[in-house]
Amino acid sequence: MLNRYPIWKYLIVLVVIVVGVLYALPNLYPEDPAIQISGDRGVKSISQQQITQATDALDQAGIDVKATELTQGSALIRLDHADDQLRARTIINQTLGQGFVVALNLAEATPDWLRAIGAKPMKLGLDLRGGVHFLLEVDMDAAVKQRLNVNASAMRETLRDERIRYRGNEVNDRAIVFSFLDENELEKAQSELSTQYNQFDFTTREQGRERQLVMTLTDQAVTDIQDYAVKQNLTTIRNRVNELGVSEPLVQRQGPSRIVVELPGVQDTAAAKRVVGATANLEFRLEASNNSGADQTETFGFRNDPARKAALQRDVIITGDSVSSASQSFDQNGQPQVNINLDGPGGSKMNRATRANIGRNMAVLYIEHKSRTRTVMQDGKEVEKRIPYTEKGIISLATIQSALGNRFRITGLDSPTEASELALLLRSGSLAAPIYFAQERTIGPSLGQQNIDRGVLSVQIGLVLVVLFMLLRYKAFGLIANASLTINLALLIAAMSMLGATLTLPGIAGIVLTLGMAVDANVLIYERIREEIRRGLSPHQAIHTGYERAFTSILDANITTLLVALILFSIGTGPVKGFAVTLSLGILTSMFTGLMVSRAITNLTIGGKALKKLWI
Q1: Cβ(361)–Cβ(397) below 8 Å
Q2: Could you give all domains of the chain from N- to C-terminal order, each with its CATH number?
């Protein structure tokens, strides 16, 4: 018989359809709005009593609780309505007090039997789930200046170790300048430093009675520093977002100096900004001694008492970059503190510095880069100009009683919240350069749900229109095309769920476009069958010839569209990529259903019948 498949082809089609339906099913179970409660790092774990305390407070506030879960010391409280999330978090925070992290979440509602086979719903993008979007600008000039300050400190230490005397040292623009009174000392310094710092161009000049050694960063070095700053900030921000426990975050580079951060499900913009954009770092310095020169010291105020001042050595023992782990806790007096663990090199430097300075004071200097905006006139127009500035304050100043190693504590913090955030920032790493918020948007969960509802409606309308057209145009064969189209939609959703693709509004547009394109294969096949019937072929011969001869046209049309989708994916950003992924998967599923599934249904329904006429 012409229109019969071997049994193995029917089995392939059946297996693909069954697997597709199974892995598409989780999308029928929408995620529950939830509140996640976890203990502060290393401080507290959640008990059933505390969950009961939180749910009782929610009941009194009139917030319906759907279910509660307790797993590995973390609690999840599922709610009935997304609009209650923000209020529920505030109530739980007030009820449980300090020492707990209370965050918004969306909890999976997929049945256990589907999760057992690895079936999960599609991930929703920021425009559908709601959350916050930040566009961060990395301060490239500050990145260069910070690197110069680090190099200048290392150079001063090198010259002291080699007993090379210099009069002064300063950092300006892209250069480090050392001043000497003796020409021989200058030559020795240049010889020593030029072997270690090949990223600088070395020149000399006269300045009054002094001879100066000027070390200017090369253009390539500046480019490398700036590129490193963006990459390091990207890594640090990813670590901070992971610490926040946000589900499916997006952190990616955009252009030479910008970073895009999208946090789905997060509605507290202030808290997200405080953690993501914080540029806090620590420096450990010795207090200046009586014989320290003016060019070797800096004076700072205390954070909790700005009127109190202390002079510190300019040279830094270690910075927060040497911290391998940090956790918040309380001392014997109930005051907040941060427990610090240093990496190997950092521990060695700390031990060496404290062992040689027992009895002297050591300060912990808290550094934070900020910016303020001012309205200025430029070209006759008022524009906002960002002015960066740095705040430095001493957290603690304590006497070194004995040599310190890899572990010690930082005290003098104002509150447990400050201690918790400082520990988080130290764990995730400091930023290589300050960042500023160039743009921020908040998408509420109600807007996200509205987007989903409209997207689903557009898919439904598109599907109905295509179904009606195929029925009116091709009669009984239209039913076969519509069955294939329904299977195609299920397979597309299943493929996106299995691959972990994120569904966005452009992705929904891609699904609608796929539905329209999916019937192209059937249209080509059915029009070819009509032509073969007009040429006088029998119904079965016309069906067989129609499928065989339409294959090349269908393949060519879909491959060209697939190439365009791949180009969009390779050069596009977020929304464009989402559209390209959906379109690419849709093309593949459309070809399978148009050529294999519809042919299988045709063969099963009419392949074994004697046909005198085709209703097509």
Answers
A1: yes
A2: 7-27+444-606 (1.20.1640.10), 32-107 (3.30.70.260), 140-221 (3.30.1360), 278-443 (3.30.1360.200)
